[in-house]
């Protein structure tokens, strides 16, 4: 045991080597694959386009991912978190209630399918 950190196994310990093998195996099993990256990027691109079209185009709105998705720390069942920011001063003053914006997005998504 390491006196400075009792949870840390010594470098030359067989248990430490087995622990590292398991951790690497686990991370490879849950890490994003190129296929999942491509699928997530495609989904985000489609949703971003629908939202931009519903709210005045890319000059009027910014649609961005946040959370585990852009950090590549998501699990296979994880969702894609997005935020939508209306830009002030473009295409006149866009003043819509959140409910109106959500209705526009819902209508656009429904018509997309």
Give a brief outline of the structure:
By secondary structure, the protein is mainly α. The chain is 50% helix and 11% strand.
Describe the structure.
Helix content is 50%, strand content 11%. The protein has a two-stranded antiparallel ribbon with strand order 1-2. The protein folds into two domains: 1-30, no CATH class; 32-112, Beta Polymerase, domain 2. Helix 2 crosses helix 4. The protein is elongated. The chain has helices spanning 14-30, 34-54, 68-71, 98-112; strands at residues 61-66, 81-86. The relative contact order is 0.12. The protein has 113 residues and is mainly α.
How many helices? 4
Principal-axis shape equals: elongated
Total strand count, please?
2
Largest sheet: 2 strands, antiparallel
Please tell me the overall pLDDT.
79
Poorly predicted ranges (pLDDT <50, ≥5 residues)?
A: 90-94
Topology order in helix (H) and strand (E) letters: HHEHEH
* CATH overall fold name of the largest domain: Beta Polymerase, domain 2
